[in-house]
Amino acid sequence: MLTTVVGSYPVSDPCVPESISSKISNFLGVYDPYIPLLELAVKDQVTAGVDIISDGQIRGDMIEVFARHLPGMVFKDNTSKIFDKIKPANHSLGGNDLKHAIKTAQKTSSDFLDSTKLDINLLVGNNFNKNFKGVKGIITGPTTLVLSSRVEGFYNRDKKEKIIMDMAMALKREAYSLQEAGAAIIQIDEPYLSTGVADLKTAKNAIKIITDNLSIPVSMHVCGDIGDIFKDILKFSVQIIDCEFAGLPNNIKALEQEYGGSKKIGFGCIDTKVEDVDELDHVVNLIKKGVDIVGEENIMLDPDCGMRMLSRDVALLKLKKMTEAVGWF
Hints:
Largest sheet: 8 strands, parallel
Strand order of the largest sheet: 1-11-10-9-8-7-5-2
Low-confidence stretches: none
Order of helices and strands: EHHEHEEHEHEHEHEHEHEHEH
Number of strands: 11
Structural class: alpha/beta
Distance between the termini: 8 Å
Number of helices: 11
Strand content: 5-15%
Number of domains: 1
């Protein structure tokens, strides 16, 4: 079984330059204090034995990173605001970090390649669980970005559908940029879909805008209780639906009742809401339940959600526990 992460990894404050070369870079104005954090996150994931890793999402939370850089948005006073027509950024927001994550992973393990050298067919069909190592590109979903932001100025606040469609068009360019940068998978994070406030038809149309004509697989991560919406999100135009199953065991019932074999399932098997490291027997038994429902050929294992709120030591131990559990199958 393939293993992955949802995205974020515990990080400390941006690093001050200490080496001579970093001090020179800082003096020249080209030092990036986040790169050491990215490298640490990547090395931990590779060391833990994770197959499809992330860059650690080290530059901020999932809303802030996009709100600070997409034209038409601003992040001020810890609040995301939409004040003008949303347009694509004039540069990729995550492409450079993804390229650096690939290079760091390759230096740590020769198994990691960028998507131009990977057999993407190993992520689809009956080949889904064959040996595959890569880095995923991550995008915060259009519905989540809009519903988590304050709308001011350009848009009518009641016309959320128009804002979400514009957001999807802006994010479509970022998805292509991540694909060109070497992403093995694109992951779209849409936690708002499980809150009951999102219009699922609009959300579905927005995801289709992003995914149309992408040549690599797309995963949609929806955390929270998906019991009432699982049947609907299975119809979204993505290859993988990723949900929480460790911290939310009731989601297993939804999987049992609604899964029809049409999608691969990202199966959250590590509880990211607690600091205690998951017991191996518990993780193995949970994975067995998932395999019994969807089949080993349709399952990808990951933590329930991002791990930013955990300590680094605990996050690493949890990832190692997940990859250890795979050895029992």
